[in-house]
Amino acid sequence: LQVANQIAAGEVIERPASVVKELLENSLDAGADQIEIDIEKGGIGLIRIRDNGCGIREAELPLAVSRHATNKIKELTDLEKLHSLGFRGEALASIASVSHFVIHSHFYNAENGYSLLLNTLSDEVIIEPVAHPIGTTVEVRELFYNTPARRKFLRAEKTEFGHIQEIVKRLALSRFNVSFNLRHQGKTTVSLKKTDDETSRLLRIGSLCGTEFMQTALTVSNENSAMRLSGWISPPSHARGQADQQYFFVNGRIVRDKLVNHAVRQAYSDVLYGGRHPCYVLYLDIDPSEVDVNVHPTKHEVRFVQSGWVHHLLVSSLQQTLEQTRP
Ligand code: ADP
Ligand code: MG
């Protein structure tokens, strides 16, 4: 069983940042609006994520670390309606198989909190009562301690922490109503309060994407009967040499998509030259039955049922926004 989990881990858990991504998605799926992330040694020493979500029932703790025991999806048709970020039910089992792993959780409707400890050698699960506020803390220590080949591929702690910061940034851009605190070696590197109006949203954009983007960005807002596009794009004059500030979210999920790149390039085509790239943070909200997110386990790809419509909405909305910058 452990070997099967380690193989699965190889597919989904590439580095500490992959662990952080899976744990944060679970916290968001649990409805948390406050998330604390503590990292040591670039995540190789420790990843600890505490949330104030719904918690896990005592009886469900062992299921949480067994593969495919997820109850988020019951039938295939649910896939179409799916709003939660996780649905494969193998992340925790995978992470637990390649680390020293502990969960503390207090289910919102239970009197007590419980901890789950996993003995990776004997496959034994130990559950004990523990004091914990409502919500969940997952602790992952010594990642890849038992898979040296994978551990060898890890980079310097600073680099690994950079990947973690990028994951936190993406999720913080996708959930403005959640507060995030990220610490490395006890030092705070990201501290974001919940936001509820345009001004505080822009402040979050500023602290994640830089004040230049915050001050110059044009607001995008457009919708038709099938979908809604919103967010911010840089004016052509503030395009940069590197495509490092490009974020596209579909129903709250980050996506890398050729169609999106193509549409953005087309919208900027007559105002942008010389290998410069527009910066953007864009949100597309669309009926979930119109997108297939189940293309790859890391879930960065999507397939739109009506890709022509999406492309058209993007190009026309962005062009319309860019018109504002013309004299
Ligand atoms: P998936 O997210 O695909 O369902 P995971 O392995 O990531 O699978 O998590 C397994 C299950 O453990 C989840 O379906 C959820 O029920 C529970 N769980 C994991 N993390 C949390 C959390 N932070 N809060 C509440 N429940 C959680
Ligand atoms: Mg998950």
Automatic annotation (TrEMBL):
Keyword DNA repair: yes
Domain of life: Bacteria
Keywords for the protein's UniProt record, in alphabetical order: DNA damage, DNA repair, Endonuclease, Hydrolase, Nuclease
Domain DNA mismatch repair protein S5: 205-323
MF term (GO), any: ATP hydrolysis activity
Keyword field contains Thylakoid: no
A single GO BP: mismatch repair
GO cellular component term of the entry, any: mismatch repair complex
Known role: This protein is involved in the repair of mismatches in DNA. It is required for dam-dependent methyl-directed DNA mismatch repair. May act as a 'molecular matchmaker', a protein that promotes the formation of a stable complex between two or more DNA-binding proteins in an ATP-dependent manner without itself being part of a final effector complex.
Homology family: Belongs to the DNA mismatch repair MutL/HexB family.
Protein name: DNA mismatch repair protein MutL
Lineage: Bacteria, Pseudomonadati, Pseudomonadota, Gammaproteobacteria, Thiotrichales
Name of the gene: mutL
